Amino acid sequence: MIDRIKQLTVLLLVAAGTLACSKMDEYKKYVADGEISYTGKLDSLKIYSGRNRVLVQGVLRSDPKVKECRIYWNGRNDSVSVPITRTQSVDTLRVLIENMEENVHNFEVVTFDDVGNKSITVFGTGIVYGARFQNSLLNRPINFYELFAGDLSLTLNYGRMDLTSGAFATEIQYEDQQGLSHEYMLSIDENDLILENYQVGSSFRYRTKFLPDTLCLDTFYTAFTEIAPNVVYFKNMTFPYQRGAWDGSRWGVPADWVTNAQVRNAGNNTYGGYELRNGNGVLSLEGGWGLRAVVDGKIMQTSNLPPGDYRITIYGIERGAAGSVHFAVAEGTELPNEQNLATQAITYVNCAASGTYSVDFSLTEITQVTVGFIGNMPDTGSWFKVAGNVVFEVL
Question: What is the pTM of this model?
Answer without folding.
Answer: 0.77
